[in-house]
Amino acid sequence: MKFTEEHEWLRVEGDEVVVGITTHAAEQLGDVVFVELPEEGTVVSKDDEVVVIESVKAASDILAPIDGEITEVNSALTDNPSMVNDDPQGEAWFFKLKFTDASQMDDFMDEATYQKFIG
Amino acid sequence: MRGSSGAKVPAWSKGHPEATGKANRMSDLKQTALHDLHVELGAKMVPFAGYSMPVQYPLGVMKEHLHTRAAAGLFDVSHMGQVVVRAKSGSYDDAALAMESLVPVDVLGLGEMRQRYAMFTDPNGGILDDLMLANLGDHLFVVVNAGCKDDDIALMKEALSDRCGIEVLDDRALLALQGPKAEAALARFQPSVADMKFMDVAKDVDIDGITVTLSRSGYTGEDGYEISVANDDAVALARKLLALEEVEPIGLGARDSLRLEGGLCLYGHDIDTTTTPVEAALNWAIQKVRRNDGERAGGFPGAGVILQQLADGAPRKRVGLLPEGRAPMREGVAIFDAAEGGNEVGTVTSGGFGPTVGGPVAMGYVTAEHAKVDTPLWGEVRGKRLPLTVTKMPFVAANFKR
After folding, report:
1. Is the model's pLDDT at B69 over the cut of 90?
2. PANTHER family, per this entry (chain A) (predicted)?
3. Nearest-angstrom CA–CA distance, B320 and B375
């Protein structure tokens, strides 16, 4: 699993990457009450706002970590946003992205580096 | 993940100007008598109105909210200002009449050991602060918002000092115990509190060896008590209450969602100097005796505007807004009268997720012609118009002991 400075985790599965937010991010957000997912088939560029997450505290965005096409979204989150708090690094993945440039994955942190990053 | 662009954050969160404006270094912040207890309980402390305050405890905002509606929650509201206004004559009536020069409320007619909601108005009819007034027999007891208290105290000193002494009670804490089990919890220490009715006040009450002044009131839409206690006794009292099975400590986060579901205004958001009491739908707080043809009509700042609006209606009104989908509509969301095109007819002033409602709730101002209950409107969230309905408040039925 790889980690971004925006507190996303990325898991490569073939030519796709599965994207979620870290346990640390979920704790910081507090109780998640709303998730808006992108449409499958959307082509995105790195840093595009792809997902809206609202917690009891505030609204946040998940950015596309790399260029690619959204191939699948976890629509269970729309009906049950609290999954994000219950299992952020497991069941509560947000979307799968088919990447166009695998080398973009080289920029991200491994778990030990991420743990140091959040201190 | 990052904070959403253009999304307003709640007043108690770190990014809000109110939270950072006055004192943005933790070392500049004032602390209440319960500060160390909050830290010990694992609270997340944030700057609020110049104080370091608990925004949530380990339970989290959602569970704290639901616990308060189901059992009892203990809130530290010691950052609010507690002020005694005592007429030089020693008579309550003289203090009340003096206070009536600042508020559009019947203070003289307030019964002994009774409390009432009021607001300081300005010459334009705007609201300088909202407050509670209590008749303690020989003086008025006033509780004002933390963010406004310096201005409020200056206002009272300037306007009332010729007739009254103004004493700020810096040596007292204020705790709120709220929820359907608040009575049972407090009555274990002092059975007589069960006999108090909504807005009753009692002084020199013994709570397991600690002397307090308390009222049966609060700001959550639940039954409960607000308890004024000497700073030196505050931690001991809080520990006694927290030791009870039904009581959990509750932070500012849940306080905000509770008062929002209760349809109650947050000063600086839902009411301020740009809103009149009539626009804010606070007409109920202006008793007949202060209105046109009343015995003491007018005589408060902005009376011309406010009395005219009471008679003829205001151009806009604060209303409850129920979004149809799941997306919260927060402060600043623009309201339109059509799904496409149409006109902007209002703005959300408070909004978020209502844990008891189980979905988003909001309040805001809309033009008078769109203020009728059941009017369909649209809020623009991230460029999309989402449907909402003008709704009666409170969103959750109030649970007071009348």
Report:
1. yes
2. GLYCINE CLEAVAGE SYSTEM H PROTEIN, GLYCINE CLEAVAGE SYSTEM H PROTEIN-RELATED
3. 11
